[in-house]
């Protein structure tokens, strides 16, 4: 973790996820629902599309997820950004507990590199606001009281478990359906 401009938190990681193909990632992105989201991780509670993206695109989809990072109940109010090649960005506005107003932003950028064994996922996480002055002050509050070392450790553990679980849950989704024949248009 390091502090970057305007007092935001920056984290990065790379993880190898074996057994994932580009087709599986596309299928998962287009067919995710609460049932599949729960299959991915036992601490996932709910996935709900608020506004879908235009047909043929994933960019612009607005969705809410409820999940636990250890003892922390969070609701992520999320918007997908434009994907370019194997790169994509999601902006999560993070609510904690049952408090309905987002307390901080979490911008996740993903870059996927597919290999013969699966994929290498490189992720950056930027926590905080870009707004000058007030945002800088709120970023300090976020670091001191919200994105604490305990919360950060729970979030990191959750991400690692998601990476480990993802291939098996994708295989469960596509069970008995050859990946090459998936309906990627729907």
Would you mind describing this structure in some detail?
By secondary structure, the chain is of the alpha+beta class. It has a single domain, classed as 2-Layer Sandwich (Alpha-D-Glucose-1,6-Bisphosphate, Chain A, domain 4). Helices cover 30% and strands 37% of the residues. The protein has helices spanning 22-31, 34-40, 134-146, 149-173; strands spanning 2-3, 9-18, 44-51, 62-69, 72-80, 87-96, 104-114, 118-127. The longest helix has 25 residues, at 149-173. The chain is globular, with a radius of gyration of 17 Å.
Largest sheet: 8 strands, antiparallel
Q: Would you identify the CATH architecture?
A: 2-Layer Sandwich
CATH class: Alpha Beta
Which overall shape is indicated by the principal axes computed on the Cα atoms?
Answer: globular
Number of helices: 4
Helix-strand string: EEHHEEEEEEHH
Q: Could you tell me the radius of gyration in angstroms?
A: 17 Å
**DSSP strand (E) fraction?**
35-45%
What name does the CATH topology carry?
Alpha-D-Glucose-1,6-Bisphosphate, Chain A, domain 4
Assembly annotation: single chain
- Are there runs of 5+ residues with pLDDT below 50, and where? 176-186
- CATH H level, superfamily name: START domain
Order of strands side by side in the largest beta sheet?
A: 1-2-8-7-6-5-4-3
Structural class: alpha+beta
Amino- and carboxy-terminal Cα gap:
39 Å
- Strand runs, count: 8
Average pLDDT score: 87
Helix content: 25-40%
Number of domains: 1
């Amino acid at each position: 973790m390091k502090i970057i401009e305007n007092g935001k938190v920056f984290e990065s990681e790379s993880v190898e996820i074996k057994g994932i193909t580009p087709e599986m990632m596309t299928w998962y992105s287009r067919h995710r629902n609460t049932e599949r989201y729960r299959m991915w991780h036992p601490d996932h509670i709910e996935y709900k599309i608020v506004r879908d993206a235009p047909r043929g695109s994933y960019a612009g989809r607005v969705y809410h997820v409820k999940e636990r990072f250890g003892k922390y109940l969070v609701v992520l109010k999320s918007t997908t950004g434009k994907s370019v090649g194997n790169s994509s960005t999601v902006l999560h506005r993070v609510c904690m507990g049952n408090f309905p107003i987002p307390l901080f932003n979490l911008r996740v950028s993903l870059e996927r590199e597919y290999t013969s064994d699966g994929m290498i996922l490189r992720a950056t996480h930027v926590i905080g606001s870009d707004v000058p002055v007030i945002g800088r002050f709120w970023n300090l509050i976020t670091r001191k009281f919200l994105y604490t070392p305990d919360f950060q450790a729970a979030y990191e553990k959750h991400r690692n478990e998601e990476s480990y679980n993802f291939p098996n849950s994708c295989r469960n989704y596509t069970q008995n359906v050859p990946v090459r024949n998936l309906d990627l248009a729907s």
